[in-house]
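Action item from last week, closing it out:
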Amino acid sequence: MPVGILVAGRSHSWKGRALTTRPQDQVSPGLTRAAAVSWRVLVIVAVAALLLYLLVQLRLVVLPVILALFLSTQLVPPANLLRRRGLPPSAATATVVVGAVLLLAGVVLLLVTQVTPQFSTLRQQVTTGIEDVQRWLATGPLNISQDELSGTFDRLRAGFGGNGPGLARGVLTGATVAGEIVAGILLTLVLTFFFVKDGNRFTGFLLDVVGEERREDARAIGRMAWETVSAYLRGVATVGLVDAVLIGIGLVIVGVPLVIPLAVLTFFGAFFPLVGAFLAGALAALVALVAKGPLAALIVIGITVGVQQLEGHVLAPVVLGRAVNLHPVAILLALTAGAVLAGIVGAFLAVPVMAVTWTVLVYLRQRGHEGVAEAEQDTEEVVTATSDEASHRIR
């Protein structure tokens, strides 16, 4: 074959291959992998957003279930103790649940009896404080005239009074929310009763649904989630109790009124990490400012900051331990997301839900590593057996 024809044939063949090159072959491998990962991430985000939307729409069912599970972690041990003492399961569960309800009702009654006698005094002090502020605005460096202040307050009152339809809608919305809260509380109590009484039956049903192959993993994940929530709630309650006692002693020394309500608020504020302590301390300082003046408010702020430092560096690491092994930034983001999605209840549930999620992810990662190690060990055993067999045949 002539050389020219051979070269032309090769050139034609090369050009044909160049013309039939697919467009994706010209994309770098890194960009191809990034595109593949991106669409998978988009699918996961879309599914998560849809699931979150459904959870928000079904909040009247989802939130009572979660709250009932959280309460069950604390009520199951005393119920089991009563059962071991010979009490029937229904009676033991009813005793524990009714006792918890009575305890909470007693706390609310205590708050009401403490706040009511001092309410009129605080209202008078608040009125006096507002008058002092108005006097300072009129005679101070701002030099605002009394007519301007009066006109401003008159316009505010007129604005509130002229917003009748808006206020009516607000009343209706408030009534709807109140109805949802009552329904949620009743559903939570009923679910708590059955979770405490028939928890083993629910667990067996869920394990049967999962299947034989994943039963052990599901059992381990459920046990770890249960222990994490239980340890978190007990630890936070202990930390909140210590904070409430110390801050209450400080308020008594300073002479601030409403010591018991502020101490109880500090206790419940511990269930909202970072934000709850700040709000409880700010309210205590505000009461001190109204009742005793700026110096007392500064002292209360100092006491609150000192107690929170003790909590953050000593109490929380020792009491909580590994129950919530999360960075403060993660906790703050979780609190914000929970508050935006579900209000106060969402802020309360955000940290334990994130702690459980993190615990489960750690477990799954460890299981994945164990699976890889077992696969490598099996491969090594197969290679060793094959080598030994080959050596035997050679001999």
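Closing note: The chain has two domains: 37-147+179-193, 215-370.
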